[in-house]
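note to self — DONT lose this again. spent like an hour looking for the file last time. sequence + predicted structure for the chain T wanted, 57 res
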Amino acid sequence: MMPIINPVEMDINKTELLTRIRQKHHYLNLLEKAFGNQTIIRKKIASALPDFVQYIL
């Protein structure tokens, strides 16, 4: 979560992040595939973020 909330990188607070993800149906579908449901919590984002970064590198 640090890159997301870091003011030098993305500078998005946790509440805003969750709001943005809820507005994107594509992300909700990905959450369902990865975690078995569309419930958005910071723990899931923190778990998925390293895999995403590894994928893009």
